[in-house]
Amino acid sequence: MSVRPIEKIKIFPDTDVLIPSLISKSGAAHFIVNELKVSKLTTQYSVDEMKAVVKRLKLSKKNTENIFAKGFETTKLSDSLSALAKSYEGYLLDKYDSHILAGAVVGKADFLLTYNLKHFKSDVIRKDFKLIVMCPGDFMQFIRSNYEV
Question: Which residues of 37-76 are buried (b: 16+ CB within 10 A; e: fewer)?
Answer without folding.
Answer: ebbbbbbebbbebbeebbeeeeeeeeebeebbeeebeebe
